[in-house]
UniProtKB/TrEMBL annotation:
<comment type="function">
    <text>Serine protease that shows proteolytic activity against a non-specific substrate beta-casein. Promotes or induces cell death either by direct binding to and inhibition of BIRC proteins (also called inhibitor of apoptosis proteins, IAPs), leading to an increase in caspase activity, or by a BIRC inhibition-independent, caspase-independent and serine protease activity-dependent mechanism. Can antagonize antiapoptotic activity of th/Diap1 by directly inducing the degradation of th/Diap1.</text>
</comment>
<keyword id="KW-0720">Serine protease</keyword>
<keyword id="KW-0865">Zymogen</keyword>
<comment type="similarity">
    <text>Belongs to the peptidase S1C family.</text>
</comment>
<keyword id="KW-0472">Membrane</keyword>
<dbReference type="GO" id="GO:0031966">
    <property type="term" value="C:mitochondrial membrane"/>
</dbReference>
<keyword id="KW-0378">Hydrolase</keyword>
<keyword id="KW-0053">Apoptosis</keyword>
<dbReference type="GO" id="GO:0043065">
    <property type="term" value="P:positive regulation of apoptotic process"/>
</dbReference>
<keyword id="KW-0812">Transmembrane</keyword>
<dbReference type="GO" id="GO:0004252">
    <property type="term" value="F:serine-type endopeptidase activity"/>
</dbReference>
<dbReference type="GO" id="GO:0007005">
    <property type="term" value="P:mitochondrion organization"/>
</dbReference>
<dbReference type="InterPro" id="IPR001478">
    <property type="entry name" value="PDZ"/>
</dbReference>
<keyword id="KW-1133">Transmembrane helix</keyword>
<dbReference type="InterPro" id="IPR001940">
    <property type="entry name" value="Peptidase_S1C"/>
</dbReference>
<dbReference type="GO" id="GO:0006915">
    <property type="term" value="P:apoptotic process"/>
</dbReference>
<keyword id="KW-0645">Protease</keyword>
Length: 441
């Protein structure tokens, strides 16, 4: 009767060899021995013989002696090495196949998104499209105050702003407060998009609308297209270009927060204008630059920033009316459009409304006892206020003994002849400063 071991096919022993290197060596060695020494005997009888030999030899010290033993040891070593090599080869092959399978699974698990050929970039970069067609018409304006020398640099004090070209023959639109400090000993410099610089001449100025024009001796200039501010909507995307901190052609963007913010609401009571409110960043130096819609049309002139996220622009429809009157005036009378002399001290102010005052008092105990006042948020270098010592952050509580309830109260005092006596609060201290307003023609 054949042993059940003899029925096990060779392929089964091969599979066992792949499972474990130690088991592989043992199985292969046994099979080789059976093939060599068993002859026609069954594998089972051979195993019995081997077991008897082991029992006999154990009493004398288990081991192999003589030439047969050496042959058997050599064969065992050879088969062991062959079996170990075979097992290691198959183990390496299995590992390699496993890694390749893992790589293939990763590729299939995380497929690369299909390429859109740059369509998304072209589709959503609408702000870049606006800048591309408008930036060349935006200019940097610098006013050199030659009679006022900076203490540290020993150079003339400069003020700066932005503007944009509205006609090919060199006419530039900007804010009046950018150039209003123009005096006989001041110089207006205009730097174009390509870096070239020209001396500018102030042609028209209207302090009530805060608009002015500057002309340079240059033709064939790129022109900003003027849009319509009457049909803009809250939530509409807008782009602002200007020169904050003298950094020319700086781009910011945002939305229209309000389309008709009245001047009285933001503490500018000497003007009757509805401003465009936006959250696009407008900082010092942005004034006079364009606020544009996504068609690349100027819908406003950047005018001022109250705080982060709250800035205002003059509607372009008001600017177009100003340009029309200025052109008519030059043709008929050959004189510039200027108002009667006005007095100014050179500050931009903000009325301390109850809401704004509450916020100040909540964040700083220095303002707890303040009931009214006007916040100074910008001082023009070289102006009367600058020379008198006013600094941004001062709160004017009284002027010539009268309480300052809003910015209009201070404007009325400024228009009076003589020197002003301002009572201010600065970092918890009450100070009195005298300011002599100057006439602006």
């Amino acid at each position: 009767m054949a042993s059940p071991w003899s029925r096990i096919p060779w392929t089964r022993w091969t599979s066992l060899a792949k499972a474990s290197s130690s088991r592989c060596v043992s199985r292969l060695a046994t099979l080789v021995f059976a093939e060599r020494y068993a002859g026609t005997r069954t594998f089972h009888s051979y195993q019995q013989q081997q077991q008897q030999q082991r029992q006999q030899q154990c009493g004398q010290g288990f081991g192999f002696e003589g030439g047969g033993a050496r042959k058997l040891l050599t064969c065992t070593a050879f088969v062991s090495a062959a079996g170990l090599g075979y097992a290691l080869y198959n183990w390496r092959d299995d590992v390699r196949q496993g890694i390749e399978g893992l790589n293939r699974s990763v590729v299939h698990a995380l497929p690369l998104p299909p390429s859109d050929g740059g369509q998304n970039r072209d589709k959503y970069n609408f702000i870049a499209d606006v800048v591309e067609i408008t930036a060349s018409a935006v200019v940097y304006i610098e006013i050199w105050h030659n009679n006022t020398i900076d203490f540290f640099t020993k150079k003339p004090v400069t003020t700066n702003g932005s503007g944009f070209i509205v006609s090919q023959d060199g006419l530039i639109l900007t804010n009046a407060h950018v150039v209003e400090n123009n005096k006989p000993n001041t110089t207006v410099k205009v730097r174009l998009y390509d870096g070239s610089t020209y001396t500018g001449i102030i042609e028209d100025i209207d302090l009530k609308t805060d608009l002015a024009t500057v002309r340079i001796n240059k033709t064939n200039l790129p022109v900003m297209k003027l849009g319509c501010s009457a049909n803009i909507r809250p939530g509409e995307f807008v782009v602002a270009i200007g020169s904050p901190l003298t950094l020319s052609n700086t781009i910011t963007s945002g939305i229209v927060s309000s389309v008709n913010r009245q001047s009285q609401e933001i503490g500018i009571n000497n003007r009757r204008m509805g401003y465009i409110q936006t959250d696009a960043a407008i900082n010092s130096g942005n004034s006079g630059g364009p606020l544009m819609n996504l068609n690349g049309e100027a819908i406003g002139i950047n005018a001022m920033k109250v705080t982060a996220g709250i800035s205002f622009a003059i509607p372009i429809d008001d600017a177009k009316e100003f340009l029309k009157k200025a052109e008519l005036n030059r043709k008929n009378k050959n004189v510039t459009l200027r108002e009667a002399p006005r007095r100014y001290i050179g500050i931009t102010m903000y009325t301390l409304t109850p809401e704004f005052l509450h916020g100040l008092q909540h964040n700083n105990s220095e303002y707890v006892n303040i009931q009214h006042g006007v916040l100074v948020w910008k001082v023009i270098p070289g102006s009367p206020a600058f020379c008198a010592g006013l600094v941004p952050g001062d709160i004017v509580t009284h002027a010539n003994g009268e309480p300052m309830l809003d910015s209009n109260s201070l404007y009325k005092i400024i228009e009076q002849p003589g020197t002003m006596k301002l009572q201010i609060l600065r970092k918890g201290q009450v100070l009195v400063i005298q300011v002599k307003p100057e006439n602006i023609y």
